[in-house]
Amino acid sequence: MKLKSVFAKARNAMQSNYFRSTDARREPENEDRTVKVYVNVELLRVIAYVNFFIMVICTLFFTRYLVKPRLEDGPDESGSTCGPFDGNMGFRVDPPVLPGEGFDVITQSHLVRAFGYNNICANWDYSPSREITAMIYPIFEYALLIYLFFDFIQVYVYYRKGWVSKLYFRIFKVAIFFMILLTSWFRMIFVVIAYEDLSGHTAGFFGFQLTMIITAVMNITFIIDTKTEFRWLGGRKGTLIAAYTYLALQLAISPLKLVLTSYIVFGGEAASWSTNKIGSVFVGEFVDDIWFVCNAVIPLFIAILRFMSEPPLKVSIDCPVVPWSGEEPLGKGPQSGEDNDAKSDEHNEVDPLTAHA
Question: Domain residues of the chain, as ranges?
Fold first, then answer.
């Protein structure tokens, strides 16, 4: 408390010696104006998810045309076991991969050797795809972080207006910290190389999975808590059925996915039961595919639905005036005390983006 008081006194002292010349008051009559920005929060989520798919599509191209030929050719120095040519667990694939030999990234990658199948990470595990993808990744990371920030602002506004419950707001207030943190840490998949440290590499992906799950669950719970209804889904009843069906899918698949990933992060290898097969598909591969649909594909369509249906946030940005030097300040501006027509007009205006017919 004492430190805060010292800081406040220092700040007040600095502010008391800060002025702008009256020459800067080029249009005093406009000093009550503000900047209004309309932000559709779910549009930001659509952009983030679309950017993720753009990144994934790029990695497919990189793997096919840059990584695959390089790995099949083998090391630059014949017989070298450096980097991906270490031959680690090469006996688990057919034909086996020996140290110092080239291999097929589609059927003989380090993930195929460890799990029996490739997941999405295999597309950026090897150079030069890893480095190029790391440069593309920010279009997804920054978009998702911006979305999470404005999603919190929207939830806070709804809470202040009484449109969401106190319980939902409190849970979101705690969850948002971890979602932002884990989204930022996802970049570690480009730092910790999969074929050198599988546990460390997967840890970044584990945080990303947790963020995607929390985001999807909190988003659909928002629809339930705000008592949203879509008439084309059958009104309130149909909306609840759709929302609870999706939550049931999440409850069924996401814990399995997190358990499978935890085995790798904390145990260094895949769970033994994940290498069993359901028909011709590995259990782990089946869980991966269903989880991806539930946490990347379906949420994109939900975000599009909400973006097309919900009004945007209206953000009003203003900058307070500072003391003027040189002469007495003119009798206008936000501190003049006058009733300003601009304020009256702003109060009475009808926002075309938020008004409903």
Answer: 39-313
Which distant-in-sequence residues (6+ apart) come within 8 Å of 245 by Cβ? none
Distance CA 310, CA 312 (A): 6
Q: For residue 116, is it left (φ>0), alpha (ψ between -120 and 50) or beta?
A: left
| Candidate from 20-24, 56-60, 67-71 with smallest mean pLDDT | 20-24
Instruction: Fill in the amino acid letter for 5.
Output: S
Distance CA 183, CA 142 (A): 9
pTM of this structure: 0.85
For residue 317, the cross-strand partners are: 35
Q: How confident is the model at residue 340 (pLDDT cuts 50, 70, 90)?
A: very low
Residue 345 backbone phi and psi in degrees, to 5: -65, -40
Could you tell me if 83 and 70 are in contact, meaning their C-beta atoms sit under 8 angstroms apart?
no
- To 5 degrees, how large is the angle CA 348–CA 351–CA 354? 135
Closest CA to 137 of 216, 233, 204: 204
Tell me the two tokens of residue 81: 């076991």
CA distances from 258 to 115, 128, 176, 221 (A): 15, 29, 19, 20
| Helix spans in 16-119 (H) | 41-62, 68-73, 110-115
How many CB atoms within 10 Å of residue 116?
19
Kindly state the average pLDDT of the residues 107-121: 92
Give CA–CA dist 31/81, Å, rounded.
69
d(CA 20, CA 138) in angstroms, rounded, equals 39
